[in-house]
């Protein structure tokens, strides 16, 4: 699969001198769902706006389908749909007209069949003649997506599609996104919610303080999350792990007071029962047993920490 968007060393300093993007390089693969996770003020919206050509980069480059967003703005922009964070719809306008109008803005000829397709895709066809003000919050969000899709873009950017919405509506949105992917649209979404990235993304990027800290296949991240540790705390410290217990998965804590066993929660056999009986056979006495899991949350929190150890407000 080729790259549909290529971002190279993208930097953005605002007028007041604030550097919101500090050299972001990222390839977006055609057909994927990429979730960009990051705390408030990380630079997610700035990144999306710059990639879409709404904000001008200070330096670096962006191409969409091979078109440079600066030099070849119209061609690049026509391939992009952008769903903003805020609901900015005209309350008295009707659903179908709202979407039709957006298509016109891209200089595309009138195409009632295309508008019908988009409205059906987003389960808005029954509401086509309703005014925007007559829709529920979830439907209004879907109208925003329909508007962004009205000119048949190949890439859709969703800026926090589920910020502040309830669980039900969030799941509804995830289904919409999955449906769009199935229809061949490449999707980039920003989110604060780790579970959102887990639920729908193919790849996850973590952005903090204007830098892309990590981009990785979600499954690989999940595999890391599947790792758990069992701490077998001992009544007496030991200097070394007894010969009979040695394994790649077992190590001794620094103070010698606990054995630390790594296992995969999703494996058929974790080996815990055997470990505990082997520990007893080796003559060691347990004081307590504790488990801990490295989660995407933990990976995320560690990544967005400042170099000086302070934590960003999430
Ligand atoms: N027009 C502007 N002028 C100056 N600074 C700005 C401007 N727009 C954004 N910033 C700053 O750039 C940084 C990144 O903002 P941005 O909106 O991209 O973050 P974000 O990751 O989308 O945050 P959120 O999750 O809160 O939406 C913030 O510190 C913000 O204050």
Outline the structure in words:
- The protein has ten helices and 14 strands.
- It is of the alpha/beta class and 314 residues long.
- Strands 6-7-8-3-9-10 form a six-stranded mixed beta sheet, with helices on both faces. A four-stranded antiparallel beta sheet has the order 2-1-4-5. A four-stranded antiparallel beta sheet has the order 12-13-11-14.
- The C terminus is likely disordered.
- The structure holds adenosine-5'-triphosphate.
- The site of adenosine-5'-triphosphate has 12 residues, from α1.
- Adenosine-5'-triphosphate (ATP) binds next to α1.
CATH topology of the largest domain: Rossmann fold
**On the 0-100 scale, what is the average pLDDT?**
89
Q: What CATH architecture of the largest domain do you see?
A: 3-Layer(aba) Sandwich
Unreliable stretches covering 5 or more consecutive residues: 306-314
CATH level 1 class label of the largest domain: Alpha Beta
Order of helices and strands: EEEHEEHEHHHEHEHEEHEEEHEH
**Can you tell me the number of structural domains?**
2
Main sheet: which strands, in order across? 6-7-8-3-9-10
Bound molecules: adenosine-5'-triphosphate
* Name of the CATH homologous superfamily of the largest domain: P-loop containing nucleotide triphosphate hydrolases
- Describe the largest sheet: 6 strands, mixed
The dominant shape is: elongated
Task: Specify the structural class.
Answer: alpha/beta
Radius of gyration equals 25 Å
**Level of helix content?**
25-40%
The number of helices is 10
Domain ABC transporter: 5-234
Keywords: ATP-binding, Nucleotide-binding, Transport
GO molecular function, one term: ATP binding
InterPro entries: AAA+_ATPase (IPR003593), ABC_transporter-like_ATP-bd (IPR003439), ABC_transporter-like_CS (IPR017871), ABC_transporter_ATP-binding (IPR050763), P-loop_NTPase (IPR027417)
């Amino acid at each position: 699969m080729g790259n549909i968007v290529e971002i190279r060393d993208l930097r953005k300093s605002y007028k007041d001198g604030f550097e919101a993007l500090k050299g972001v390089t990222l390839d977006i693969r055609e057909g994927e769902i990429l979730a960009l996770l990051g705390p408030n003020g990380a630079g997610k919206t700035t990144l999306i706006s710059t990639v879409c050509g709404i904000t001008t980069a200070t330096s670096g480059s962006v191409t969409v389908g091979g078109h440079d967003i600066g030099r070849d703005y119209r061609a690049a922009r026509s391939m992009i749909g952008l769903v903003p964070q805020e609901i900015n719809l005209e309350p008295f306008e009707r659903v179908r007209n709202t979407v039709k109008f957006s298509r016109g803005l891209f200089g595309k000829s009138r195409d009632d069949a295309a508008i019908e397709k988009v409205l059906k895709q987003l389960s808005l066809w029954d509401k086509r003649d309703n005014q925007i003000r007559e829709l529920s919050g979830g439907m209004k969000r879907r109208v925003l997506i329909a508007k962004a899709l009205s000119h048949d873009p190949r890439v859709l950017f969703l800026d926090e599609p589920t910020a502040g919405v309830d669980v039900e509506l969030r799941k509804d949105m995830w289904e919409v996104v999955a449906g769009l992917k199935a229809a061949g649209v490449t999707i980039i979404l920003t989110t604060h919610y780790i579970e959102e990235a887990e639920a729908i993304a193919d790849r996850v990027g973590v952005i903090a303080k204007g830098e892309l800290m990590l981009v990785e296949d979600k499954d690989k991240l999940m595999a890391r999350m599947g790792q758990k540790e069992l701490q077998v705390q001992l009544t007496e410290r030991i200097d070394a792990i007894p010969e009979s217990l040695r394994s790649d998965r077992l190590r001794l804590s620094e103070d010698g007071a606990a054995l630390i066993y790594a296992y995969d929660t999703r494996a058929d056999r974790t080996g815990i029962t055997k470990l505990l009986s082997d520990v007893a056979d080796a003559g060691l006495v347990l004081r307590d047993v504790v488990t801990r899991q490295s989660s995407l949350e933990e990976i995320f929190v560690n990544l967005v920490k400042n170099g000086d150890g302070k934590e960003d407000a999430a």
